[in-house]
Structure formats: C-alpha cells, structure tokens
Amino acid sequence: MKNPIIISVTEQAVDGFNYEARNQLKRDTDKFVTDLIKEAHRLEENIHTTEKKPEITSSIISNANFWLRNNLSKPKPRPSYRILKVISNILWLIVGILFQTEKLQKETNFFIFFIFLLAFAIILSTISVLNEN
After folding, report:
1. 38 and 102: one domain?
2. What is the 3-state secondary structure (H, E, C) of 25-43?
3. pTM for this predicted structure
4. Residue 95, by phi and psi: left (phi above 0), alpha (psi -120 to 50) or beta?
5. Share of the chain residues as helix, strand and coil, in percent rounded to the nearest 5
6. Given 75, 90, 114, which residue is the final one in a domain?
C-alpha cells in the first residue's frame, strides 16, 4: 500500500478558529477531497477507452477541481427520480388520451377522475423538475 496523502494546515492559518470551527473545517475539507476524487474518477472514466489500469493525471485533478468549484459537475440522479420522471410522462400521455370534451361535459364522474389525474400529473411533473436541481 502506498503512503497516504496528508494535508496539513498551519496553526497560524487557523488562528482564531474555535474548536467547533476547526472540526467543521476538517469535515468540509474531507468532503471536498472525497468529492474531488470522485469527480476525477468520473472524468477519467470518460477519457479512458482501453482495458489498461485507469490513470488519473494532474490535469484531470485540475479539471475536477474546476468542475467542482464552479458547480458544473452533476451527480448521477437516483433511479427513483428517473422512475418518477417516466411515470410523470406516462401520466401526461394518459391525460392527453383521456381528453374528450364531450365526455367531460356530460359525465361528472369522468370529469372528476380527469381533474384528479391532471392534478396528479402536474404534481409529479413539478416534483421531477425540482429534483433535477
């Protein structure tokens, strides 16, 4: 196993930080390093086309840092969000198929069902759009 990378911060740099601030700095630094490593692996996977062992270079790390700092990197959405989006689109298709003006005007139960379906489609679409960001 190779030597671990140790990141050090001088005492002078954190002068005035209380105990909680130092702990928060450590947690945020650990999270940033973890995110940077994940982003570097993601970028390397997009470049990597051979069966050789992946190699992450300094330029990949620089690009990953740029992507992270500028919020350009988007994590893969959870499968539940994709399923929600598919259900939402199918629901809109069903609403479109069921839209029959004569039937909506004459049958009260069909009208209530249609309005309920339409409201449900609007809610699911809104949730799926909000979860994209």
Report:
1. no
2. HHHHHHHHHHHHHHHHHHH
3. 0.53
4. alpha
5. 70, 0, 30
6. 75
φ, ψ (nearest 5 deg) of residue 56 = -100, 120
Do residues 66 and 86 both lie within one domain? no
DSSP element (H, E) containing 108: helix 108-132
pLDDT tens digits for range 27-83: 999 999 999 998 888 888 888 777 778 788 899 889 888 888 887 766 666 788 888
Token pair 């990141």 is found at: 7
Q: Judge contact between 58 and 112, C-beta under 8 A.
A: no
**Structure tokens that stand for 112 in this block:** 């209530």
Q: Do 61 and 21 belong to one domain?
A: yes
Give me 131's structure tokens: 């979860």
User: Token digits for 53?
Assistant: 């062992």
